């Protein structure tokens, strides 16, 4: 992605565009063996999902589900851009992921749980057992008075009780909102408040990096935070990591906190009829960070979402019921919802669920798990690929597993890392799908169809079947493929997996994803509503897209989007801090990490103690994932004359780049002081330009 001075002159770009220069990578072909067994082998598949067949082509996706009532309208655009898919249809997600498989797969494992401590045995949960547990938990929730349309917040780690709880909610039509287990109690509390949940479901503890974490402590903070914001939580249901024992130190609050395992004793063997819900009812909320501190709840539907993740799991991940599939993501992120729980289970897969850190106790762990369980489909993120490569480049060779297909997701993967993934992890046998998509999109947007398209390291491929991406420049003009220019990637058409709205904020939904390129706000024609993904991208002459990263004010840390405003406001909770600015810095393993600049209030002496408290504030308000690489206390922020902080300058300093012309700043001298503080007097600045996402990031002032 870095531009060299040599190539810089080659492409003329207007201000509305971004020039991109890199070497075109060569193609890799799927093996004949893979092609012969693949679920999707029709070379005309993309044409079959061409815009001329839209939206009816997506009937094929809906047909993969079992409906209680058939739908009458494929796509209803009457409330554009709030799309309704498969209207008139009624179905139940829990029925589709569990009940309908019983006849054929009753005694096949649905989930295999691998605890982090290596001495603890795996737990295989058969479809029949999953059915029993989901029904019992649904009975418990129903008898507590919860019903369709209510929201329940989950704050759970990677344990089978999480998908069981999600499916129990889905059985009743309760909208679940799972908050990533690694997020802090405060982050959970603000999401409880936004969703209006009265019930929080959590777990006492879980293993992470060799430590049994007291997770219940977060529940107390979450409830208090929600209360302060005006949302009262009536009940906290606590699963036990070791049933019958309490794995946390934090006391249970009488009358509010209950052990799920105790309550379930009254619901043994109970059955709950899956509720026949409208296709366009909400299945869950998934919060992602936006550009303001307020959490943004992406609302996903039952019929559209479930059909989309089911079909893409089948055709792109190539899941067959006899496969053993392992996605190392966390269920607390959209990848886990779509491609550990809903998509795989709707396909009667055996889905592996690993509790802990991939490199615990060493970088051979994932390959030991793969060998022992016979995993043949593997799915992870570039950050894990980079980490495993760094710590154990030769480890995969020591284990006798064989993957037929592998996926990467979450951030751009460097061709170097891609090749290690292909050569070493995939042993040159496995196909790779590089799947580009977002929380908001429910499932894949850009990817190859693995038996049909060649792979190209660093590029996700063309649009997925029925997804028609387009790159627009700032003025709304199309950036043609093969031009070497990048712009904002948008999707021309709606698709079943697209979010329905931002929970409780219709205006923000329109503003964030559509306003920039919509020309007629009253139009009911989907053609007028391209969906803006918020990524920069370039399309090569072969039609493949390469994603450059986020163009909005969001930092993608190890594949997880963190709002910069959220981080900055966390810093400001330290009373001595007057101003905070956060910028992304390149990181070998995590891709990007936040680096924080703070200015303290007049009269306050800079100290290590303040820095420590800023780090702690980020961990508490957001979670460990937001831990800044460095915190610098600067004498003043570089500012424009109108007083705006110039993050671009800070980003250049943090990334050891030339700061460019700063003479127009209100306080140009401070730039050199900060540069020396960060880079030392022997500065090693390069003139290489910043990667596109960081450069763009800095422009949003
Ligand atoms: C980035 C995760 C390049 C992108 C599913 C997007 C990717 C953001 C890829 C969404 C990929 C995801 N190649 N970039 N294959 N996949 N991204 O909402 O910037 O957590 O906008 O969804 O991750 O992150 P989110």
In short:
The chain is α/β, with parallel strands linked by helices. The chain is globular, with a radius of gyration of 25 Å.
What are the key terms here?
binds 5'-O-[(S)-ethoxy(hydroxy)phosphoryl]adenosine, alpha/beta, seven-stranded mixed sheet, globular, eight-stranded mixed sheet, 701 residues
Low-confidence stretches: 1-13
Q: Estimate percent helicity.
A: 25-40%
Given helix and strand content, the structural type is: alpha/beta
- How many helices? The count is 22
For the sheet with most strands, the description reads: 8 strands, mixed
Quaternary status: single chain
Main sheet: which strands, in order across?
13-12-9-7-8-15-16-24
Give the integer mean of the pLDDT values.
92
Termini, distance in Å? 23 Å
The radius of gyration is: 25 Å
The shape, in one word, is globular
Task: Tell me the total number of β-strands.
Answer: 31
**Proportion in β-strands:** 15-25%
Explained architecture:
The structure is a single chain. The protein contains 22 helices and 31 strands. The relative contact order is 0.11. With 701 residues, it is of the alpha/beta class. The protein is globular, with a radius of gyration of 25 Å. The strands form 8 sheets. It has an 8-stranded mixed sheet with strand order 13-12-9-7-8-15-16-24, with helices on both faces. Strands 6-5-18-17-19-20-21 form a 7-stranded mixed sheet, with helices on both faces. Strands 1, 22, 23, 25 and 26 form a 5-stranded antiparallel sheet that branches. Helix 8 (161-172) links the parallel strand 7 and strand 8 (175-178). The chain binds 5'-O-[(S)-ethoxy(hydroxy)phosphoryl]adenosine. 5'-O-[(S)-ethoxy(hydroxy)phosphoryl]adenosine binds next to helix 13, strand 21, strand 25, strand 26 and strand 28.
């Amino acid at each position: 992605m870095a531009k060299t001075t040599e190539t810089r002159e080659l492409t003329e770009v207007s201000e509305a565009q971004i020039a991109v220069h890199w070497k075109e990578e060569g193609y890799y072909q799927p093996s004949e063996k893979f092609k012969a067994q693949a679920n999707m082998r029709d070379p005309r598949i993309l044409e079959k999902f061409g815009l001329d067949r839209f939206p009816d082509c997506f009937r094929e996706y809906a047909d993969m589900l079992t409906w209680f009532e058939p739908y009458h309208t494929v796509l209803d655009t009457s409330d554009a851009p709030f799309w309704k898919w498969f209207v008139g249809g009624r179905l139940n997600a829990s029925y589709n992921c569990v009940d309908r498989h019983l006849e054929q797969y009753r005694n096949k494992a649905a989930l295999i749980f691998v605890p982090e401590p290596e001495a603890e045995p795996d737990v295989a949960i058969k479809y029949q057992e999953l059915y029993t547990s989901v029904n019992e938990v649904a009975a418990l929730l129903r008898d507590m008075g919860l019903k369709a349309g209510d929201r329940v917040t989950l704050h759970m780690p990677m344990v089978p009780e999480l998908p069981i709880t999600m499916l129990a909610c889905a059985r009743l039509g309760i909208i679940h909102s799972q908050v990533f287990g690694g997020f802090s109690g405060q982050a959970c509390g603000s999401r409880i408040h936004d969703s209006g949940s009265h019930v929080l479901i959590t777990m006492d503890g879980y293993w992470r990096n060799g430590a049994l974490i007291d997770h219940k402590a977060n529940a107390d903070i979450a409830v208090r935070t929600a209360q302060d914001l005006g949302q009262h939580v009536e009940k906290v249901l606590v699963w036990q990591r070791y049933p019958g024992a309490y794995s946390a130190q934090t006391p249970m609050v009488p009358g509010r906190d209950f052990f799920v395992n105790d309550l379930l004793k009254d619901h043994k063997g109970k059955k709950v009829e899956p509720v026949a819900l409208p296709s366009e009812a909400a299945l869950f909320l998934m919060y992602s960070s936006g550009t303001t501190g307020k959490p943004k709840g992406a609302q996903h539907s039952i019929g559209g979402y479930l059909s989309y993740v089911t079909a893409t799991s089948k055709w792109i991940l190539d899941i067959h019921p006899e496969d053993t599939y392992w996605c190392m993501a966390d269920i607390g992120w959209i990848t886990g919802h779509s491609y550990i729980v809903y998509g795989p289970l709707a396909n009667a897969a055996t889905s592996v669920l690993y509790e802990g850190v991939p490199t615990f106790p060493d970088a051979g762990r994932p390959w030991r798990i793969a060998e022992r369980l016979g995993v043949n489909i593997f799915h992870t993120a570039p950050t894990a690929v980079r980490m495993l490569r760094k710590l154990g480049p030769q480890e995969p060779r020591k284990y006798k597993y064989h993957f037929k297909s592998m996926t990467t997701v979450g951030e751009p993967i460097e061709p170097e890392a891609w090749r290690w993934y292909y050569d070493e992890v995939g042993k040159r046998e496995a196909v790779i799908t590089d799947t580009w998509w977002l929380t908001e999109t429910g499932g894949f947007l850009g990817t190859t169809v693995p038996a049909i398209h060649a792979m190209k390291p660093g590029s996700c491929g063309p649009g997925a079947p029925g997804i028609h991406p387009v790159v627009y420049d700032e003025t709304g003009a199309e950036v043609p493929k093969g031009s070497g220019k990048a712009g904002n990637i948008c999707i021309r058409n709606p698709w079943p997996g697209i979010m329905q709205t931002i929970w409780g904020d219709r205006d923000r939904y329109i503003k964030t994803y559509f306003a920039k390129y919509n020309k007629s706000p009253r139009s009911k024609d989907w053609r007028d509503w391209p969906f803006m993904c918020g990524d920069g991208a370039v399309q090569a002459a072969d039609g493949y897209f390469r994603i450059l990263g986020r163009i909005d004010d969001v930092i993608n840390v190890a594949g997880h989007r963190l709002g910069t405003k959220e981080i900055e406001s966390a810093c400001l909770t330290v009373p001595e801090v007057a101003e905070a600015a956060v910028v992304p810095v390149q990181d070998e393993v995590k891709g990007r990490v936040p680096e924080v600049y703070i200015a303290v209030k007049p009269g306050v002496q800079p100290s290590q103690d303040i820095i420590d408290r800023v780090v702690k504030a980020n961990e508490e308000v957001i979670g460990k994932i937001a831990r800044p690489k460095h915190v610098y206390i600067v004498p003043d922020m570089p500012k424009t004359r109108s007083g705006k902080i110039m993050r671009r300058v800070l980003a250049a300093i943090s990334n050891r780049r030339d700061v460019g012309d700063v003479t127009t700043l209100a306080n140009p001298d401070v730039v050199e002081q900060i540069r020396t503080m960060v880079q030392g007097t022997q500065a090693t600045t390069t003139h290489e330009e910043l990667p596109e996402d960081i450069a763009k990031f800095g422009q949003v002032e």
